[in-house]
C-alpha cells in the first residue's frame, strides 16, 4: 500500500525543506517558490503554504548551515571545546582555564573561516559585522542544546547576539516552516502571503544594510580614534626626541669647548717644557 495522503504530504514537505536549506543563498527565494508550487500541484496544500512561508536565513546563518552539512565535526569541536572550557572554569588551574579558553576561541575561529570559505565559493562575501555575529552565534549555540539542534539540522535562519542569547533563535523545525491550519487556499490569500513575505524580506535586508553601515561607521570611528592616539604619541615622541637632540647638541658643544681648552692648555705646557729644555 502507498503512503496515506497526510503522511505523503509530510514526507514530501520534509524532502522539500531539506532541498531548500541545502540550496544556494541567492537562489533561496526562487527555489522556495518552485518547491511550494510542486507541493501544491501534488495536492499538499497545507504543506505548500508552509513552504511559501519558510524563512530565508541570514547570510551568516546560511553559511553555518552549509558548514554543518559539509563538515559537522568542525561545529562539534566548538561544542566540545566549550564544554572543556566550562569544566576548567570550575575545576582547573589558571593555566588550564587560559588554555581551554584559547582552544575554544580557536575552534570558533576555524568555524568562522570555514563559513567564509563557503560564502566565497558561492560568490558571496562576509562583512566584519557578519563575521562577528557568526562567531557570537556559535558561542550561543554551543551553550544551548535546543538552539544547537536547529543548527545541526542545517536549518538555522537567524544570527544570535551573545548579550541576547535567544534573540532570533529557531525554537525548532517549525520556526523554519511555521505551522498553518490546513484549509482551502485562494489566489487572493496566496498573493497576500507572497506580498507579505516580500515585504518582510525587503525590511530585513534594509535593517541588515543599516546595521552593516552603522558597524562600518563604528569601525571607522575606532580607526580614527586609534590614528589620532598614534599621532599624539608620535608628536610626544618627536617632542622628546627633539628635546633630547637639543640637549645632546648642547652637551656636545660643551665637551668640544672643554676639549679645545684642554688641547690649548696641553700645547702651552709642551711649549713651556720645550723652552726650558732649550735653555739647558
Helical fraction: over 70%
Series of secondary-structure elements, N-terminal to C-terminal? HHHHHHHHHH
Shape: elongated
**How many separate helices?**
10
Radius of gyration: 35 Å
Number of DSSP E strands:
0
Strand content: under 5%
Distance N terminus to C terminus? 144 Å
Q: Structural class given helices, strands, pairing?
A: mainly alpha
Mean pLDDT: 78
Largest sheet: none
Low-pLDDT regions: 163-185
Topology:
Elements lengths: L4 H18 L5 H14 L3 H8 L6 H12 L1 H20 L2 H28 L6 H16 L1 H8 L20 H4 L10 H93 L1
Helix pairs in contact: 1-2, 2-3, 4-5, 4-6, 4-7, 5-6, 5-7, 6-7, 7-8
Q: If you had to describe this structure to a student in words, what would you say it looks like?
A:
The protein is an all-alpha fold and 280 residues long. α5 packs antiparallel against α6. The chain is 79% helix and 0% strand.
Please give a quick description of this structure.
The chain has 10 helices and no strands. With about 280 residues, the protein is mainly α.
Amino acid at each position: 500500500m502507498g503512503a496515506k495522503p497526510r503522511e505523503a504530504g509530510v514526507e514530501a514537505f520534509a524532502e522539500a525543506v531539506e532541498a531548500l536549506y541545502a540550496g544556494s543563498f541567492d537562489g533561496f527565494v526562487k527555489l522556495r517558490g518552485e518547491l511550494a508550487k510542486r507541493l501544491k500541484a501534488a495536492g499538499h496544500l497545507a504543506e505548500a503554504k508552509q513552504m511559501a512561508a519558510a524563512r530565508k536565513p541570514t547570510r551568516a546563518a546560511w553559511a553555518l548551515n552549509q558548514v554543518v552539512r559539509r563538515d559537522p565535526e568542525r561545529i562539534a569541536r566548538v561544542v566540545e571545546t566549550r564544554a572543556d572550557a566550562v569544566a576548567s572554569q570550575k575545576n582547573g588551574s589558571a593555566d588550564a582555564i587560559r588554555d581551554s579558553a584559547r582552544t575554544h576561541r580557536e575552534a570558533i575561529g576555524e568555524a568562522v573561516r570555514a563559513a567564509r570559505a563557503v560564502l566565497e565559493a558561492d560568490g558571496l562575501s562576509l562583512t566584519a559585522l557578519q563575521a562577528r555575529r557568526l562567531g557570537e552565534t556559535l558561542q550561543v549555540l554551543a551553550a544551548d542544546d535546543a538552539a544547537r539542534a536547529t543548527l545541526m539540522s542545517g536549518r538555522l535562519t537567524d544570527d544570535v547576539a551573545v548579550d541576547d542569547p535567544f534573540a532570533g533563535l529557531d525554537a525548532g523545525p517549525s520556526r523554519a516552516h511555521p505551522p498553518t491550519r490546513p484549509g482551502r487556499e485562494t489566489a487572493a490569500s496566496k498573493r497576500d502571503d507572497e506580498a507579505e513575505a516580500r515585504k518582510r524580506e525587503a525590511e530585513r535586508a534594509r535593517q541588515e544594510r543599516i546595521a552593516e553601515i552603522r558597524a562600518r561607521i563604528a569601525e571607522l570611528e575606532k580607526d580614527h580614534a586609534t590614528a589620532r592616539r598614534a599621532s599624539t604619541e608620535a608628536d610626544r615622541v618627536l617632542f622628546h626626541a627633539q628635546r633630547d637632540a637639543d640637549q645632546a647638541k648642547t652637551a656636545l658643544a660643551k665637551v668640544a669647548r672643554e676639549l679645545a681648552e684642554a688641547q690649548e692648555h696641553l700645547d702651552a705646557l709642551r711649549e713651556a717644557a720645550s723652552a726650558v729644555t732649550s735653555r739647558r
